[in-house]
């Protein structure tokens, strides 16, 4: 489903709320019209001649779609810290000693007994490298701003660093952010800011596509059932909106990484092989 009416969705969600009593809200046409009237907005594009318009039906269908995908699919993919640790250790057993590793599993920012590997990040890195083997380069901890070139000259740069990029920070084919919050007990501003940062990246990548006609795969990996599902349903709704506004390629949730990462990496490799002679061949001519 392509969402061309992101502003309408955001406006209605802001007015009526994203969730209530632990349930994601699917507003009725009556509630939507009421919210427009309270904002002194015309309603005729949503409801006209005593009937819901095509746009109105699309808006209603989208709200139902958003609630269904989160309730029926997404919520069941989140892991607790114990489950994430178990998955990390299972993947590590099959990974260790098989590949030339240029990265270290980062440690979370907790203290004492909570100081552990960043389990989701470690899993994502291992799954990506298992799919890439030693045949492709990759920045698993991109500490530089991503830039794009045309005819070997820089034409666009992003405003902020991301967590990872393939094959590197110059002309990346894929970029990703990882948000794992297993020890968080409240949905703070830092977590919310992560969504807005993803939105900024999305708008800038849209500009890259417009200026130099180069699409970039843009991913968000998230996990921690309590943080995202119990406390952060409104932000999950916003993530779904970002995808359907064309600002995010995909959000991969918790245990979905096992199935999805190998598949998306195959897409990256195909794109790299297609672009290699133009963008990445540094051999002398």
Structure, explained:
This protein is α/β, with parallel strands linked by helices. It folds into two domains: 6-72, no CATH class; 79-279, Restriction Endonuclease (3-Layer(aba) Sandwich), CATH 3.40.91. Helices cover 47% and strands 13% of the residues. It is built from nine helices and ten strands. The chain has helices spanning 6-16, 29-38, 54-72, 81-95, 119-132, 189-212, 225-231, 233-244, 257-279; strands at residues 19-20, 23-24, 47-48, 51-52, 147-150, 153-157, 164-166, 174-180, 217-223, 250-253. The chain has a four-stranded mixed β-sheet with strand order 7-8-9-10, with helices on both faces. α6 (189-212) links the parallel β8 (174-180) and β9 (217-223). α4 (81-95) runs parallel beside α5 (119-132).
Break the fold down into its secondary structure elements and pairings.
Layout: H1 6-16, E1 19-20, E2 23-24, H2 29-38, E3 47-48, E4 51-52, H3 54-72, H4 81-95, H5 119-132, E5 147-150, E6 153-157, E7 164-166, E8 174-180, H6 189-212, E9 217-223, H7 225-231, H8 233-244, E10 250-253, H9 257-279
Helix pairs in contact: 4-5, 5-9, 6-8, 7-8
